[in-house]
Amino acid sequence: MVAPYALQVGADGGHRGRGYRGVLAGKSAMSEGKRSGLIERRRQLGTTEQAAILVGGATYTHAAVERRAGAVARLLLGERATLGGARVGLLARPSIEWVAGFFGVIKAGGVVVPMSPQHPDPELLYMAGDAGIEALLTDRAHEGRAAGAPGARWLLEEAGEVEEQERPGLAPEDGALLLYTSGTTGKPKGALLTHGNLEAQTRLLAEAWGITGQDRLLHALPLHHMHGVVIALLTVLQAGASAELLPRFDPREVWEGFGRATIWMGVPTMYHRLLEALDRATTEEQRRWAALGRGLRLATSGSAALPATLSERWGELTGTIPLERFGMSELGVALSNPLAGPRRVGSVGRPLPGVAIQVVDGQGVPVPAGEAGELVVRGPTVFAGYLGREQATREAFREGWFLTGDTVLQEADGYLRILGRTSVDILKSGGYKLSALEIEEELRAHPGVAEVAVVGLPDEQWGERVAAVVVRKQGLTHPVTMAELQAFCRERMAPYKIPRSWFFVEELPRNALGKVLKPALRQALQGTG
Ligand code: MLC
Ligand code: AMP
Question: Is the Cα torsion angle 395, 399, 402, 403 positive or negative in sign?
Fold first, then answer.
């Protein structure tokens, strides 16, 4: 039976209708009649009194998480039987309320749209509008944010707790999570992950990394991206394990926190910061922290390339190099070094069982091992599509394969190396994916800017540092300054998107067709600013 409330991923710019399942042919037929494994697992876990979330000195069991999630679901549903795939924004600090909000929306048949308090209101409002949210869940600390967002507003602290109650069945192809991710076309797009996607992503990862109910994750990742939400938090919770949520990433707190954890997951910038903090620590702290690091069962790195120097240093200190893996908002983790077998510096390992990959040329033809090509992925972990963007979704696939936009090389024994992005307009800074075009578009709206190009410059700490190259508007009595542009950005974009280096030039280098020569620009600016 086809449930009547699956989310429509409709024509570009609109996603109003209901009752349409997914955008990929064959998806609905494949899992017809099945129930959501994600929800089944929550139901099972809801009967256990094992720790699930540790935050602010308190511990909440899986049963308590389910009771709180049930209360959020009740709040959102009112008299209705299901949210029918409606999107619900979630804007809160890392807390039990955040976790209850997340599962509450999903249990009620809705799609969670995690929103970061780091985003200024214009970005929150863009997401809320683009997702067409029917309600926004906030905690008290963020009650006043995103005023003017569509739909109802609910305070998470007021939800309370309820015992589990029967809800209408949810199916694997129903939408569960909408993650905003930057692309090569202007504004961020919402990648829609289904119940089936999340179930497959978390199960495959828990199996590959041997996660059990005995594990405890130390969590300091932002809760609005794939890494923090699914790869880290959801994976350990669905495995019946627990997560300690830190309010933010603070290297000293993280070193000390290792003593209470078995698993740590970070982006390369976090490893850089941890090792930097270690160098500045007292001899006694250095000894203790290294011992706590050695006590971890598993430390993973992802979201950006882990420099060999960091990997090796971590290995010398703790006895094992971080387990590096490759993932994406659209598909969770696809490639991973092994838990037990040889981990290779500079490599992201092999595909997880159940994830099919190819390395292809521009025509989609697989290239031989040892040759560079684009990584393409298919399988149950791959998302349903970009919400309301049919064309962008179509362009993201070729014959059922999702085009990652990453250039990779597969070695003869199957291990893969990530060589870079196929587009110069996609940057990675501190593990955040940024669109140069999106930042340029915002800056171009400043009356003092005639032209602008944004590029990523190599940076030891951030991986890439965002640099803006600006041509000022001529003939103004007051030529725009860097401080003015920074202030302008602060009102419009999350802090991690704001350029850290600024260059003012007379003109931008362009080819005969007028296209800015970004590789040349990047080359010219390297080692400056
Ligand atoms: C923070 N800042 C950044 C930044 N993060 N600037 C550029 N790039 C970034 N990534 C800004 C801050 O706003 C601040 O600005 C200044 O840098 C210094 O701040 P900080 O306090 O020192 O930095 P901090 O806030 O501690 O951030 C560092 C960080 C953070 C590493 C903790 O960047 C982070 O959480 N990164 C994780 C991103 C992530 O989860 N990506 C996963 C995507 S999913 P100012 O102006 O105030 O000085 C994915 C799939 C997969 O990729 O495979 O995992
Ligand atoms: P996001 O869209 O934020 O999920 O970012 C996904 C992108 O992060 C991928 O397409 C890669 O470019 C990059 N990425 C993730 N993991 C790694 C890794 N281990 N090494 C290099 N790049 C990575």
Answer: negative
Q: What contacts 306, CB < 8 A, 6 or more positions away?
A: 268, 271, 322, 324
Are 220 and 247 spatial neighbours (Cβ–Cβ below 8 Å)? Answer: no
121-129 average pLDDT score:
97
CA distance 413 to 415: 6
User: Does ligand 1 come within 6 angstroms of the Cβ of 462?
Assistant: yes
Domains of the chain with bracketed CATH:
5-27+57-194 (3.40.50.12780), 426-525 (3.30.300.30)
Whether pLDDT at 93 is above 60 = yes
DSSP for residue 225? S
Query: Is-contact 349 336, C-beta < 8 A?
Result: yes
Q: Between vectors from CA 71 to CA 67 and to CA 72, what angle results, nearest 5°? A: 120
- Whether the per-residue pLDDT at 376 is higher than 80: the answer is yes
Mean pLDDT, rounded, of the chain: 92
Say how many Å lie between the CA of residue 265 and the centre of ligand 1: 15
Return d(Cα 385, Cα 526) in angstroms, integer.
37
**27 — phi, psi (to 5°)?**
-60, -50
d(CA 339, CA 354) in angstroms, rounded, equals 17
Ligand 1 center to 269 CA (angstroms)? 8
pTM above 0.90, yes or no: yes
Instruction: Give the nearest ligand 2 atom to 405 CA.
Output: 10
Q: Whose CA is nearest to atom 46 of ligand 1?
A: 495
Looking at residue 243, its pLDDT comes to 99
From ligand 2's centre to the CA of 176, what distance in Å?
A: 22
204, 381 Cβ separation under 8 angstroms:
yes
**Token digits of residue 95:** 């807390």
Tens digit of each residue's pLDDT (9 = 90 or more) over 409-419: 999 999 999 99
Whole-angstrom distance, CA of residue 451 vs CA of residue 480: 12
Ligand 2 is surrounded, with C-beta below 6 A, by 181, 225-226, 302-305, 324, 326-329, 348, 404, 406, 418, 421, 428, 433
Residue of minimum CA distance from atom 7 in ligand 2: 328
496 in contact with ligand 1, CB cutoff 6 A: yes
Cα(421) to centroid(ligand 2), Å: 9
Q: 131 pLDDT exceeds 90?
A: yes
Q: Does residue 438 have a pLDDT over 50?
A: yes
